[in-house]
Amino acid sequence: MLDNCDGPVYKLSMKRILSLLLVSLAVAACAPVLQQEYLERGSADIPLAAFINEPNAYRGRLFLLGGEIVESTVRDGAVRIEARYIPVDERGRLKDTEPFAERFLAVYPADGEPPAPELYRSGERISIAGIFTGLEPGRIGDIEYLFPVFEIRDVGQGYQIPFEYVPYPSDVRYLEPSLPMMDPFWRDRPRPAGR
């Protein structure tokens, strides 16, 4: 048991704990969103318009795509998710872009296990691995639209909360009393110039 928590043993163990925390956050940020087998087999670089222009060339193949959910419904026991398209990277994570105007339908068949309800609320962003099954006519407001339809094989949240370490805040909060809770070594760090 340590009597003096300001000694070098305490600082060393706290530094190790913080290092392990940072390493685990970095590993989690690099983790794929979808299962590895789907990431290896699926194609992620096909623009959504290609499915509408040449549906027979893509039917029955596995694709990785993402989107922002517009709405989700249940029809004949199947969960149907309408989403605005967002491309994904090779790990299934959404690329840093706003949702496109193009939309697609992602369908969980009635005999499959549907995703957790919090994944398909309006406004949530998801990544899917899905088999392209064809086009389905529908409407977006008053406009007729052909929706590319994907049968979901795997689904996940397409983003993770980014972690950014900033050692020296640039404002007055650097000296607030709550800072030791965020950085136990704040007293040992050199102060930024001008402070």
What does this structure look like?
With 195 residues, this protein is α+β, with helices and mostly antiparallel strands. It is built from five helices and five strands; from the N terminus they run ααααβββββα. Strands 1-2-3-5-4 form a five-stranded mixed beta barrel. β4 and β5 form a beta hairpin. The longest helix is centred in the first third of the chain and has 23 residues, at 8-30. The radius of gyration is 23 Å and the shape is elongated. The model is unreliable at 25-29 and 160-180 (pLDDT under 50).
Strand content: 25-35%
Q: Largest sheet, described in full?
A: 5 strands, mixed, barrel
Radius of gyration: 23 Å
Average residue-wise pLDDT: 75
Percent of residues in helices comes to 10-25%
| Discrete helix count | 5
Count every beta strand, where a strand is a DSSP E run of 2 or more residues.
Answer: 5
Side by side, the strands of the main sheet go: 1-2-3-5-4
Question: Which stretches are poorly predicted, pLDDT < 50 over at least 5 residues?
Answer: 25-29, 160-180
Distance between the first and last residues' Cα: 37 Å
* Helix and strand pattern: HHHHEEEEEH
Give the gist of this structure:
By secondary structure, the chain is α+β, with helices and mostly antiparallel strands.
Labels describing this entry:
195 residues; alpha+beta; 5-stranded mixed β-barrel; 5 helices; 5 strands; 31% strand
Topology:
Blueprint: H1 8-30, H2 36-41, H3 48-53, H4 55-58, E1 62-75, E2 78-86, E3 103-108, E4 125-140, E5 143-157, H5 179-182
Parallel strand pairs: 3-5
Antiparallel strand pairs: 1-2, 1-4, 2-3, 4-5
